[in-house]
Amino acid sequence: MNTITLYRLIQILFFTFGFSLVNSIVFGQVEKTINRNAHFWISTNNIYQLTNRWGILNDIHIRRTDFVQNPSFYFVRGGLQYSIKRNLRVAGGYAHLWLASPTQRWESYLNENRIYQQISFSQRYPRLNTLFRVRSEQRIFNTVISGTSQSDHYLIHRFRMLLSAGIPLTASGRTQFLIADEIHLNFGDRVVFNTFEQNRLTIGFKHKISSQWTVDTGYMMVYQQRPTGLDYNLNHTFRLFFYGNFDFRKDKSKELDYVRHAEE
Fold first, then answer.
1. Side-chain half-sphere exposure of 56, counting CA atoms within 13 A
2. What sign does the CA torsion over 22, 28, 32, 38 have?
3. Parent domain of 136
4. CA distance 89 to 143
5. On the chain, which terminus has fewer CB atoms closer than 10 Å, C or N?
6. In sequence order, what are the residues at sequence separation of 6 or more whose Cβ sits closer than 8 angstroms to the Cβ of residue 109?
């Protein structure tokens, strides 16, 4: 991807963010409620490279609310990844999310079954690493009322665009300053007021611990519009994400080029 193409991708992302901002301003002309939350989010995000082309993906996420006092969600994801080029990859798979309810009883958790497809492009420059990812999700929910599942499964489509950049702070590149933004858009018959679903802005640091493990930590601000269109969540999140790269290839002479950024 040349500089012009990358510039166009950045334009698309900021145009979409601008659309969401206008949407928020329009709704801001009527009374709305903003719920402010403090979260702690920890995850492990692993790639098991089987060949030069094929790899297995696996994520495990835990998010706590009231910082660490109460559960927010548990999330697992698996999938297959195929490398079209060294820095161009497609992937797809299945994920499941357990979203806690105010009662915090396990039987009252909302369950989400999720199928996803994504394409990601990474590029390394002398003083910058970039990742652009587009992900499509088919999210199947069940409604829970008074701790009882209603077995009324319904489908919502979600489209996500992520732009992430890492700026090396050391000559070796082991430590980087990280900034990323991802916007989520909803589609489907049940989506009426919140086509703009949320925006995630991340600022932090990424450090390569070893040949297999990298960690990133920092602050994530999530601005989320609820289905009513008038209720919003403003989540202030401390994130601690671990990235594992496990190479099972017989021939390891070809270097793998990973620029990664993970979220639920």
1. 8
2. positive
3. 3-247
4. 35
5. N
6. 98, 99, 100, 101, 144
CATH number of 154's domain: 2.40.160
Q: Tens-digit pLDDT profile for the chain (264 aa)?
A: 555 555 555 555 555 555 555 555 554 556 789 999 999 999 999 999 999 999 999 999 999 999 999 999 999 999 999 999 989 999 999 999 999 876 666 667 889 999 999 999 999 898 999 999 999 999 999 876 666 666 678 899 999 999 999 999 998 889 999 999 999 999 988 888 888 999 999 999 999 999 899 999 999 999 999 888 889 999 999 999 999 999 999 988 888 777 787 776
Identify the CA nearest to 78 among candidates 92, 60, 57.
57
E-assigned strands of 126-230?
A: 128-141, 144-145, 148-149, 154-168, 175-187, 196-208, 213-225
The secondary structure of the chain in percent helix, strand, coil, rounded to multiples of 5, reads: 10, 60, 30
Is residue 144, in this structure, part of any structural domain at all? yes
Q: For residues 138 and 197, what is the distance between their CA atoms, to the nearest angstrom?
A: 14
Task: Enumerate residues 6+ apart whose C-beta is below 8 A from 174.
Answer: 207, 208
Instruction: Kindly state whether residue 117 falls inside one of the protein's structural domains.
Output: yes
The full DSSP string for 61-75 is: EEEEETBTTEEEEEE
All residues at 6 or more sequence positions from 122 whose CB lies less than 8 Å from its CB, including other chains: 87, 129, 130, 131, 132, 257, 258, 259
| Residue 182 domain-assigned (yes or no) | yes
